[in-house]
Write a structure and sequence with these properties.
- By secondary structure, the protein is α/β, with parallel strands linked by helices.
- Helix content is about 50%, strand content about 10%.
- The longest helix has 25 residues, at about 30-55.
- It is globular and about 80 Å long.
């Protein structure tokens, strides 16, 4: 299955989430069947991301959005697990601070855009300002609606100016699956820290959030920054689909190994010089690994 084509939102199309099955799991019945394919894609990511870091000509921005319980944290951990941490930065965007509110809504976002050679992962993102702000009526429509265009222009800036590939994932779960995950958190003491006092008040706004997500997906899936709707009721399938899409995007960058910055022939000469010196040293070492005493050697002769 070509996950990139299957789940990509075509620019200009109108998204209707009710037409998408959040329980879809492709050709595999379970995580065991999918394990080999998943591992293949993770290995592709590892190899390509190391080349990305070395080449320092491209960058990658991964945006994760979804309703509470959709698996943003788990997806973030899973994608990162295949990458060298020194080339990855993860940023979680919470409620803006007083200082951030005194600036335009993209002011706090831009410093976290990936530098060349790096990967940035946004756990929630600039889209909160057309989602939460809209649902909770924190700003009037005449304020948040123009932000769709600002977002598109900002993402285009990253793509054109800094050679950034942008992948935006909406992790789509059903309302029933969300409630099941809330129960898992209650029953598992190691996950109770994830419980929020607003979980159920936000759940009551489910339809409003779906409407807001549909608008964002429709208005902001572009050629340079496409949205992908990932069926996420099955965590293993979510991980499989995302890893394949990320691996494909890295392959599409056509990353080439950077040219050496040193004189290779000179380095080769120094290597042979060091190697020959090491060989001479070994010839002077006795069988017990210690250099022979010169007097003992002379007496034996």
């Amino acid at each position: 299955m070509n996950f990139t084509k299957r789940f990509r939102i075509d620019p200009g199309s109108k998204v209707d989430l009710s037409s998408i099955d959040p329980g879809f799991h492709g050709n595999h019945a379970n995580d065991v069947e999918a394990a080999e394919e998943l591992q293949h894609h993770l290995q592709r990511i590892t190899k390509a991301q190391r080349a990305l870091y070395a080449e320092r000509n491209h960058s990658l921005l991964i945006v994760l959005q979804g309703i509470d319980g959709a698996g943003k944290d788990g997806s973030c951990w899973h994608v990162m697990s295949a990458m060298d941490p020194q080339g990855v930065q993860v940023t979680g965007f919470k409620q803006p601070t007083a200082e951030e509110r005194d600036h335009d809504f993209l002011w706090r976002i831009h410093p976290h855009a990936p530098a060349r050679g790096n990967v940035a992962i946004f756990n929630r993102s600039h889209y909160e300002d057309v989602l939460v702000v809209r649902v909770h009526k924190l700003a009037p429509k005449e304020i948040w609606k123009p932000r769709f265009d600002f977002i598109n222009e900002w993402e285009k800036l990253l793509s054109v100016e800094n050679n950034t590939t942008i992948l935006k994932f909406f992790l789509y779960i059903s309302k029933e699956e969300q409630l099941a995950r809330f129960k898992e958190r209650l029953d598992d003491p190691t996950h109770q820290w994830k419980i929020s006092a607003t979980d159920y008040t936000e759940r009551n706004k489910w339809d409003d959030y779906i409407e807001a997500f549909e608008a964002a997906l429709s208005r902001c899936s572009t050629e340079h920054a496409p949205w992908f709707v990932i069926p996420s009721n099955h965590k293993w399938f979510r991980n499989l689909a995302m890893s394949a899409i990320v691996a494909d995007a890295l392959d599409d960058m056509k990353i080439e190994a950077p040219k050496p910055t040193v004189d290779i022939e000179e380095i080769r000469r120094l290597y042979h010089q060091a190697s020959e010196a090491e060989s001479r040293k070994k010839k002077l070492v006795g069988g017990d690994g210690k250099a022979e005493d010169s007097t003992e050697s002379a007496a034996r002769s």
